[in-house]
Write a structure and sequence with these properties.
By secondary structure, the protein is mostly helical. The protein contains 14 helices and three strands. A three-stranded antiparallel β-sheet has the order 1-2-3, with helices on one face.
């Protein structure tokens, strides 16, 4: 087979790419149905964006380790400058100021910060001697690098993206070896600060999302409408669904945002439990491959980078599924590779490209143990 298939093709991680292609194709089918049986405006652009970002991922996968390390701090600073620019000249949309209009493209810098925070912290901790990692000299700079972009994103306001940045950074800090007691203390402080944040930090609509999560039936036609309709759509699908292109909740416009945040509910209504199980299995395969890449990494930087990118994808999946099923407040996190949206597709394909890059480093490096 090696003589038939060209080497550049044969050495690609097909155990991840084939499930990924299936998931994106299934997502396109769901978006086709969400548009009432039409490739426009969702399915066609979904596939086009994936193809474009797949090329980007292939370019990322070809980068050498030394260049990636060199770009870690400049890349983080560049995205931080873009976040500051959003506050100064950013475009408004849906009541939030999150985008930069750069002529031919509209960029959401906060999405770029999700992989950027993982990269810069992997570089930071890989350069520290092991003896300094469980000390305040490691904790304070890392918390600062996480807290600054989180604060800027919360000002937009975008709670979901801020939480994603914090989660990715915390995962890298934990895997780098910071003491567990620090995370326990941080969690306890977060619980104490949560009531204050609810009343003095969150916007009114964000407060309604929290209260709706706690009691969605209290206002089923108002603040609880989204989650109520999502539960109806998922539950009405049963074991095998109502059939492709036969979802009443999305077609009759009962289900809000059936092509973005609630695409899983759209899918579950038409494909049922079987469709949902298929999606979960595919995500499980992709995430398991990502963690295997991290475990096989030959140095601390590569291991932290791969694990951080894998958990960034995991955060998207976990929060979106919990959100549409009523186990988490609605925070505007789309489902990777299935929801329609260029920003989330870009972020998750950067993660995939980075994992492919570390996988290539693993394949090319001799087995000398972790450094």
């Amino acid at each position: 087979m090696n003589s038939i298939i060209p080497a550049p093709i044969a050495r690609q991680p097909w155990q991840m790419l084939i499930p990924l292609f299936l998931l994106v194709g299934f997502g396109a089918a769901v978006l086709y149905s969400a548009a009432g049986g039409s490739m426009e405006p969702f399915a066609a652009s979904h596939l086009m964006r994936f193809a474009l970002f797949m090329v980007m991922a292939a370019v990322i996968a070809s980068l050498p380790r030394d260049l990636v390390k060199l770009l870690a701090y400049p890349g983080y600073i560049a995205v931080l400058v873009l976040l500051i620019a959003v506050e100064a000249i950013g475009a408004m949309g849906g009541g939030s100021q999150r985008w930069l209009n750069l002529g031919p493209i509209v960029l959401q810098p906060s999405e770029l910060m999700k992989p950027a925070i993982v990269l810069v912290l992997a570089k930071f901790f890989s350069a520290l001697p092991f003896g300094l990692i469980p000390t305040w000299r490691a904790l304070i700079p890392a918390v600062g690098m996480i807290g600054l972009p989180m604060s800027l994103v919360l000002m937009q306001p975008d709670l979901g993206t801020a939480l994603a940045i914090g989660f990715g950074g915390a995962v890298v800090m934990f895997l780098a070896g910071l003491p567990l007691r620090w995370f326990v203390t941080g969690g306890a402080m977060g619980l104490v600060a949560a009531p204050l944040a609810f009343f003095f930090v969150l916007k009114e609509y964000q407060q309604r999302r929290v209260t709706t999560f706690l009691d969605p039936e209290s206002d089923p036609l108002g603040a609880g409408y989204h989650i109520t309709q999502s539960k109806i759509a998922i539950g009405s699908g049963g074991a095998f669904g109502k059939g492709f292109n036969n979802g009443s909740q999305s077609h009759l416009n009962y289900l809000p945002e059936p092509h973005t945040d609630f695409v899983f509910a759209t899918m579950a209504e038409e494909w049922g439990f079987v469709g949902g199980l298929f999606v979960l299995i595919i995500f499980g395969i992709i995430l398991r491959w990502g963690m295997r890449v991290a475990r096989r990494a030959q140095d601390r930087f590569s291991r932290l980078l791969a694990a951080g990118m894998t958990f960034t994808i995991f955060f998207y999946v976990a929060i979106n599924l919990m959100m549409v099923m009523g186990f988490a407040p609605i925070v505007g996190i789309p489902l990777p590779f299935m929801s329609h949206g260029g920003s989330s597709m870009m972020t998750n394909m950067i993660c995939i490209g980075t994992l492919m890059m570390v996988n290539r480093w693993n394949r090319e490096a001799p087995r000398l143990g972790l450094k």
